[in-house]
User: Fold this.
Amino acid sequence: MNAKLLHINTIGCQMNVYDSEQIAAHMAQLGYQQTSSPQAADLIIVNTCTIREKAEQKAYSFIGRLARLKRKKSHLIIGIGGCVAQQEGEKILDRLPFVDIVFGTQAIHRLPLLIRQIEKKRCQIVDIEMAADTQATEPIIGLHRETSVSRFVTIMRGCDNYCSYCVVPFVRGRETSRQPDKIIQEIRTLIDNGAKEVTLLGQNVNSYGKKEGLCSFPELLARIDELEGLLRLRFTTSHPKDLKGNLIRSFKDLNKLCHHIHLPVQSGSNKILKQMNRKYTRELYLDKVLKLRDTCSDIAVTSDIIVGFPGETEADFEDTLDLIKTVEYDGLFAFQYSDRPTSPSVHLPDKVSDSQKKERLQILLAMQDAITRKKNQALVGSIQEILAEGFSKKEISGKSANGRQLAQWMGRTSTNNIVNFYHDYDAPDSGQAHSGKLINVRIEKAFSHSLWGKPLAGASTAKGVKGVECYAA
Ligand code: 5AD
Ligand code: SF4
Assistant:
């Protein structure tokens, strides 16, 4: 019998990427193999995102295009999962009647059962049950067939913070943390399958384990740091209000914890931060950034910012620009405020016009671009340790001046800078550039989103190398 084929289209954040891997692992139990071609698939799953209106539109436009496929191939099963599914439920079937199943963010483990039902009875199903039984929602481990160097591990789900613009608490449910032993077991399995770096995922990792009385997040990090075979550890995302001294110290104390923190500020105006229900002031935020840099001098700080939140005046926006200038972020994700039907800020007055939001976004991005370019330029000439991940996305290959075969590879610095480099297959020391190895590169060129480097001969020596000083501390 031919294997049944599954195509997954993942929209949105790393949490969705992780969930899609879980969907694939669950469906493998029913004999489904993944395909990159929607046309070839027997089952198409769209894992959706609803954080901003644009993400939701992207999902609907992809799903809309599937109607034609379904007409041509009547046995095709179409499933909509993720945050739009959780938010809209049955309404999706009214709008798109050719969809077979709508399943929510906490229904992934029930998917094989539901798909089997559809295969047998050709019925339509909506499962957006939120009563999370944390044991039942434990991910499948040991079925990972992906062998990439860098992997995500979800350590907690949901969020209890209720920032006024955000849908996450409504579509992902209450915050729940996984047991540390289960997390460690999963990471061990990933290491056995070739992972060298893991990124721990949670909406607010700083509050890991608090509700359940598990270990603290810094304690969890310390346990993971000891795992043999793991080279690097990252996490995202931290809520500034919960970032405390013990986590800040981890950047100095732990060998494998990368020197990068994503610390979303959202706005530089105290008035807007209050309206956003963020529970910190710009002064408190700036103080935490100072403490991070005092503890780990080369730590890279990145952030998320929303422009055009309801009531944001020119003066409030200036406060945000001023904060960006003060912090000098290593990278920024900036978004135009988007009204979401379930989030409380939908009811706030003084909405900012689309053209104003667009203009503010452009000003902000131009400012950040200059900062990132300056910072990247300062790295030219330095030697950086990178974890070689594999071929770069562009997969450019060519020949060197002496006719050697070259391929473009990529890796990241501890501070999360992307470094592209040529891997010279014929060079005597080419063995060092193999995927999953820490290698030293001399930075030769800087761009706004990446660096270009040249691998150096010999093994990486982290100590004393610019950019990784804290390793030696
Ligand atoms: N509009 C615009 N941006 C948003 N974000 C979350 N909700 C909204 C919204 N309604 C942004 C925040 C968050 C990031 C993941 O998405 O900056 O940190
Ligand atoms: Fe949304 Fe705020 Fe929770 Fe982040 S902390 S997921 S922005 S509610």
The two ends are 59 Å apart (CA to CA). The first helix runs from residue 14 to 28. Residues 159, 161-163, 166, 168-169, 203-204, 239 surround iron/sulfur cluster (ligand 2) (CB under 6 Å).
